[in-house]
Amino acid sequence: xxxxxxxxxxxxxxxxxxxxxxxxxxxxxxxxxxxxxxxxxxxxxxxxxxxxxxxxxxxxxxxxxxxxxxxxxxxxxxxxxxxxxxxxxxxxxxxxxxxxxxxxxxxxxxxxxxxxxxxxxxxxxxxxxxxxxxxxxxxxxxxxxxxxxxxxxxxxxxxxxxxxxxxxxxxxxxxxxxxxxxxxxxxxxxxxxxxxxxxxxxxxxxxxxxxxxxxxxxxxxxxxxxxxxxxxxxxxxxxxxxxxxxxxxxxxxxxxxxxxxxxxxxxxxxxxxxxxxxxxxxxxxxxx
Length: 288
What we know:
This protein has one helix at residues 2-20; strands at 27-31, 47-54, 66-74, 88-96, 98-103, 106-111, 114-118, 124-128, 133-141, 156-158, 174-182, 190-193, 196-204, 209-213, 218-226, 229-233, 243-246, 250-254, 260-264, 270-278. It contains 1 helix and 20 strands. Helix content is 7%, strand content 45%. The chain has a 7-stranded mixed beta sheet with strand order 1-18-15-20-13-11-12, with no helix packed on it. It has a single domain, classed as Jelly Rolls (Sandwich), CATH 2.60.120. It has 288 residues and is mainly beta.
């Protein structure tokens, strides 16, 4: 009889044990218009940070190399707080408005569609202009031992300066503006980063496809700027089963080796802001 009671006790405890088991997701999803402001390093009375992934977001535990991804809005004439990250690089894309980035104490004018690189160890902040300044900011951790190459002045360029190009291995219905790469890049407008591999704008023709694929050692972020379609996130037995309806403002973070892709709707073009970085390899019990 005692063994029967023991067996029944184990069976009754099984659901509780199963509920305690946790599996990390292969991707994260946010919709930017629904993200509430949160306090972060750049936040001030005149600068609001809306975190999608990383700093300020409580549910970004699967991020390895990405420290932050979100949108900063600075009111006209306003100022953000000043920040400096000793072992992080930041990539900035100005989405709307105009103003300045104060880089190492020097104000640098910026406008819509500018993209900027902030190396580690440089203090920076934002100043608003006549209109609200909106910037997408992504931070990347730089492991100890990586040698930092410091630019003489703030690296900045504009998306309009970068031509569309095809990339080998992808359909010709998907074309790319290769904005920024690492210091070894020969194809990007700015070759300045260290752990960030690629910042680009992906433009798809109506009905175009960014073929589902994965990067074994790299994390990736997609933010749908314009258009609609189906975002591919994760894979099933055929490798492309994870399709999700997508609309402007949808953002996806993909952990290393996750399947990523996009099927554009047939009625109009689409644009995606994308970033890819080398993820540090963290070996521990949670990764086994």
